[in-house]
Sequence to fold (426 residues):
Amino acid sequence: MGRESIEEGKLSNPLLVKNFDSESQVYGYGGRGENSGAGNEQQSETFSSSATTMVVLSTLVAVSGSYVFGSAVGYSSPARSGVMDDLGLTVAEYSVFGSILTIGAMIGAVVSGRIADYIGRRGAMAFSEIFCILGWLAIAFSKVAWWADLGRLLVGCGMGLLSYVAKIGQEKKCEDALQNLRGKNADISQEKSEIRDYTETLKQLSEASILDLFQRRYAYSLIVGVGLMVLQQFGGVNGIAFYASTIFISAGFSDSIGTIAMVAVQIPMTGLGVILMDKSGRRPLLLVSSTGTCLGCLLVGLSFLLQKLQQWKLVTPILALVGVLVFTGSFSLGMGGIPWVIMSEIFPINMKGSAGSLVTLVSWLGSWIVSYAFNFLMDWNSAGTFFIFSCISGVTILFVAKLVPETKGRTLEEIQTSMNRFSEKR
Fold:
């Protein structure tokens, strides 16, 4: 596996264990297991021990990061009235409190690479939780607005740090951790060799800067990657997530019931999206998802418009609830995760770090703009706010239909060839 193959997106073998049994042949980690007897027994032993206690515990710890994210993002929604009353905040001051989380996340994301290089990925994860703990304590015991803002900023920094993973050259620790994950009797020699070869080859690549992204051959990838993130954020997701309770109360619906209903829709739709992503493809799922978010925002906007016109008073709260649920479910189905998947597939491996940094920065910046401006927009015109979000989702449909490539079932090399060909034509 050489330098050129990595730059063009080729990997000889995946870095995850796969278990695929077809026509009495075992496809193991590193490809097809052509040797019978002891070879297959070793592979079977590896597979049988892949779901070790350590794997389960490690997965639980990693998944707990989702709870950290969810509690941080969702906190500002139901707690709005309590925080504003306790600290005597104005709408502008509360908008700062709600949105400053994203500023912290941007800071955390920027410094996460350096921290991880010094203390390792596991150390960085632990370090991030220190920020989160201190932040929540500051919020809990705050008596003035700036103290609460500081706490919210620290929680955001922890989120930004937590979102970073992958290598610092500690081969022995890597081997020990891998053995614990796979089981003490599992043969990890091939997997360890692959990881070592991959990281060593990756080190030989020249480190690409963000400025290197702005070359003609990456133009198409950059338009798609950044474009999806901009449309994802300006479709209103963080405004709705941060201030869902405010939306329900303004629409005359119970905020507690509405929030519970959102979660009840979000979880299964996210799971469905994961299942359908590799079955139906990325583009069809994005089209369905953006169509749903467009419809959902349209329904919420109509609810506020009818409420303002004093029409269908009994129906408008239900219409707002249905609209928010349609938006939440549709976003979870595709627009929530697929843009990140596509972003990781459309850039060559040597550009993924720089591309990831740029796209993450754009995403958090968009998140801050929407979450800060949302309260002001709602005070300006509630119906108009959601009609704007609906129009942006409509633009997303056109963007996906015209520009986003289908990456399902294609190798990184095939994707890069098609992307570069398009850029050269431009």
Remarks:
- Residues 1-50 have pLDDT under 50 and may be disordered.
- The chain is about 75% helix and 0% strand.
- The first strand starts at residue 20 and ends at 22.
- The first helix runs from residue 3 to 7.
